Amino acid sequence: MNLSLPQIEALRQILGDTNVLLDEADLQHFGGDWCRQYSPKPSAIAFPTTTEQVQAIVRWANTEQVALVPSGGRTGLSGGATALNGELVIALDKMNKLIETDVASSTLKVEAGMVTAQLQQHAEDLGLFYPVDFASSGSSQIGGNIATNAGGIKVIRYGMTRDWVAGLTVVTGSGELLELNKGLLKNNTGYDLRHLFVGSEGTLGIITEATIRLCAAPKPATVLVLGVNEMTDLMSVLASFQQQTSVNAFEFFSHNALEANLAHSGEAQPLAEAAPYYALVEVETASEVETEAALACFEHCLIEGWVVDGVMSQSEQQAASLWRLREGISESIAPRTPYKNDLSVSVSKVPAFLAKVDSIVAEHYPTFEVCWFGHIGDGNLHLNILKPEELAVDAFVEQCKAVSALIFEEIARMGGSVSAEHGVGLLKKHALSYSRSEEEVRLMKQMRQLFDPAGILNPGKLFD
């Protein structure tokens, strides 16, 4: 649908002329996200600056039967912030203020449009730390992070976004205003509705404010990159470091992922001996004892034959350089038009799952190159199938979808998830049944109906 001139004028009355955008370039920029499989087609972009304005828009939209798409930093990879059918996009970019600092409770109350890196800086200014971190922290917004329950590189130590949300202010799909948990550490008074909105992908309400927990500043850390011959050995390495050190992160990547990154960056091979897989381990080393424990664990893994070669950072600069071996992979393989899957299984099942997926792709599409990386310490794998140069994009995508169906069947057998951290959005809604039972989906639809009876919030996302 397209908005009529009277409807546009009504929006301007609520927001002001400069906070309603209609130009095609703006519609394209603010109407989608990083998922490039869908073409944005919003009718307008609205920029509220207060919770009251968001509530006024939602109430107006219910009266006018106008569909809304909430939009944060638009860094999602599942199309959850994409407006396909003339919806009005509610962009939270201008709601980015720090509302309240509570040092005694180690919390910050912020507007939902605050960029993640800004929140991290506010925490650092207090001598504290917001630990949920990922490559898009410079552009993602805290409201979007909450709506998708974002994870990142240190989930193994600090958990997901959900674990750091102490309170929420939400405008539901019916226009009701909810103040959820109010930043309390202990509040045992029935259903904690706050957690319904974490990971709800904008289908139940629009998050406008959040009270975020912080923790103590991190201690000095050391980074190791270890070459490993077998996936099962990665699990042994993980167990060894967890037993002997404080592990902040445990990432992995395949050799072809490393090769692509090095070719893109021009940097040298980190190890003298190549290996099929690599583990990146970050451990706390605030004392000489902890540093010696990390080194001893490294040497133990070499003696056991789990690791064939490795390097251990000797400075912050070298640690950052080693992290780039993992963080630069997505950018380096982008020219190969990768078909991405964000998957998870129990940590103990990772080697068997990876081997099974490799065999599925090799059997059905032997010319496809598979590039692996991910947060293996929490069971999250990023599968990237790289497009052969001679194959057209549309044909490649169709063939990958057929592969995905087989992979999702394996996910279901192993009790895993078809979307570990990127959400469902448009991209994965057809696959929801692989990870959620009929009973779960039925109850989720009932909750959506309860909070958004007119069905105006993010229609077509998560499920139809």
UniProtKB/TrEMBL annotation:
Residues 38-217 form the FAD-binding PCMH-type domain. Gene3D superfamilies: 3.30.465.10, 3.30.70.2190, 3.30.70.2740, Uridine Diphospho-n-acetylenolpyruvylglucosamine Reductase, domain 2, Vanillyl-alcohol Oxidase, Chain A, domain 4. SUPFAM superfamilies: FAD-binding/transporter-associated domain-like, FAD-linked oxidases, C-terminal domain. Its cofactor is FAD. The keyword Flavoprotein applies. One of its GO terms (biological process) is respiratory electron transport chain. The keyword Cytoplasm does not apply. GO terms for molecular function: FAD binding; oxidoreductase activity. InterPro entries: FAD-bd_oxidored_4_C, FAD-bd_PCMH, FAD-bd_PCMH-like_sf, FAD-bd_PCMH_sub1, FAD-bd_PCMH_sub2, FAD-linked_Oxase-like_C, FAD-oxidored/transferase_4, Oxid_FAD_bind_N. Keywords: FAD, Flavoprotein, Oxidoreductase. Coiled coil: none annotated. Belongs to the FAD-binding oxidoreductase/transferase type 4 family. This is FAD/FMN-containing dehydrogenase. It comes from Umboniibacter marinipuniceus.
